[in-house]
Amino acid sequence: MEKLIKLYKENLLVTNCPYCNSTKFKKHGKYKFTHRYKCKDCKRTFLPSSGTSIHYIHKKELFIEYAEVLKKEGLSSVMKMSKRFNIAKLTSFDWRHKIFSSIPQQNILFKDEAFVGDISFRFSQKGRRGLSKKENDINKRYFSRVLNTTDQNINFVRIATVGNLNAEHLDRVLRKKIMESCKLLIPEKDAFLKFTKNNRIDKKVVHKDVSVYLKHRIVRYYQQLSSKIVNFINYELKGVSTKYLQGYNNFFITKEMQIFDAMTTKYLCQKFVWRIFTQMEETYKEFLDLHCEAKYSRPIKRSWKRTKLYYITQDNILY
Questions:
Q1: b vs e for 98-122, b when ≥16 Cβ sit within 10 Å of the residue's Cβ?
Q2: In this structure, is residue 249 part of a structural domain?
Q3: Secondary structure of residue 171 in the 3-state scheme
Q4: pLDDT exceeding 90 applies to what percent of the chain?
Q5: Would residue 77 count as lying in a domain?
Q6: CB under 8 Å to 110, separation ≥6 — which residues?
Q7: CA–CA distances in Å: residue 314 to residues 10, 102, 271, 277, 317
Q8: Residue range 237-249: average pLDDT?
Q9: Given this model, what pLDDT does residue 62 score?
Q10: Does some domain include residue 2?
Q11: Whole-number Å distance between alpha carbons of 51 and 250
């Protein structure tokens, strides 16, 4: 209980209304050991934890311990964590993805020299029941294309599409991240060549010849980082559902940069985590429908309270 009280007093800051983002609010009574607040604009009441990763969690002290294990020991299987904390498998799974959803989006801008390439993972419908043999055969044709952009100090890893990668996918994911001063090192692939040409980005094509390819320090670092990501997803985790792939990417990068800590103010002040978590299926469907060749099928039907009320910007949506 001491850790929880400390969390509410020191880490769960109230700076705006989680529903309308207004900064006009007032104290509105007490709830257990914290204050309740009321927004002067939308008139809704809320707690410091409303919309965050600990929102609607009954065993909050146990959740804090769960998050601390992720920080210190990394990922264990859902089953192992379920047994360790004496919680249901679905609860263990949900807690993991609530924490992933709370990882802040980095305010990334590439200013100087950076390398961008793509990593491929087999399209996975893991966890979806009732898939026919025909659907499974079709799914095997597709690969998730994850863009890995780095200048060795900053790493930006984001899924772009499922299927063939084109310049439009790069434009959607990367354009706002590349400053005019940046020189982009790119592989000799049509999508990257067209993207840099369309946006008039200074570029250097890094050829497929290994002896040339590995001379540049940023390219070597990119190769090492990409290998680690592939090993993490394919071998340590034995594959993950494409729906959750971005969450695992975010977790890996923050662990790699040694900045992952789900119980700090930066993570706990993400007031839209509840919306990201509860709308994951809808977001995933929209991503497949609008940006991918693979088709959405076999929806996972779960429902929660008040999922769309929390304020969120487009930049904070996972896909």
A1: bbbbbbeeeeeebeebbbbbbbebe
A2: no
A3: helix
A4: 74
A5: no
A6: 149, 151, 154, 156, 177, 178, 179, 182, 184
A7: 28, 15, 14, 15, 6
A8: 95
A9: 96
A10: yes
A11: 20
Residue with tokens 């940046």, as numbered in its chain:
182
Which stretch of 107-121, 127-141, 225-239 has the lowest confidence by average pLDDT?
127-141
Positions of E strands within 1-112: 25-31, 34-39, 45-46
Instruction: Provide the domain limits for residue 22.
Output: 1-50
Residue 237 CB contacts under 8 Å (≥ 6 apart), including other chains: 75, 248
pLDDT at site 205: 86
Question: CB atoms < 10 A from the CB of 209, how many?
Answer: 10
Q: What is the pTM of this model?
A: 0.93
Instruction: Tell me the C-alpha distance between 221 and 214, whole Å.
Output: 9
φ and ψ at 57, to 5 degrees?
Answer: -105, 125
Q: How far apart are CA 156 and CA 246, in angstroms?
A: 11
Tell me: do 42 and 135 sit in the same domain. no
- Backbone dihedral angles phi then psi of residue 276, each to the nearest 5 degrees: -60, -45
Question: Buried b vs exposed e over 139-177: b needs ≥16 C-beta within 10 Å?
Answer: beebbbbbbbbbbeeebbbbbbbbbebebebbbebbeeb
Q: What CATH number has the domain bearing residue 141?
A: 3.30.420
Write out pLDDT tens, residues 6-28: 888 899 999 999 999 999 999 99
Take residue 67 and report the two structure tokens written for it: 């998050």
Contact (Cβ atoms closer than 8 angstroms) between residue 300 and residue 284: no
Q: How far apart are CA 26 and CA 159, in angstroms?
A: 40
If one counts every other C-beta atom within 10 angstroms of the C-beta of residue 251, the result is 21
178 sits in which H/E element: none
pLDDT reported for residue 140: 85
DSSP annotation of 232 reads I
Distance of CA 123 to the CA centre of its chain: 17
From 263, 239, 270, select the one nearest 69 (Cα to Cα).
263
Residue 176 within any structural domain of the chain: yes
Within 10 angstroms of residue 199's Cβ, the number of other Cβ atoms is 16
